[in-house]
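Question (not urgent): is this output format expected?
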Amino acid sequence: MNGEGVTFVAMVAFGIVILLAIGTIGRLLDLRRRREDEALGLQSRVSDALMLEPGLSGLAVTASMHVPLWPRKPPTLEIVGRVTSTSWPPGSPGGPSPTVPPRCRSRTRSG
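Got this back:
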């Protein structure tokens, strides 16, 4: 092979590598978009459930869902807000329990 042939093969190989990189980036962006859509759906379901709960409907509680890009990792639900102790009388169902720490993290697998 002469110098022109080697240059042509190198340019074709470089073009193929660039096309593969563009395709991979496109797939990753699509995966991220789908995972964000899934997180938004889960977050809206949890927010609706919190609003329908009579004891929590008037309190400032916000749910946010974090879904990692890697599909094998479970989504993380974070519920943030301020609840006064007068909102939950001691011993009432659904109220704070002395056995549950005030800041806990729960992981579930959605399917």
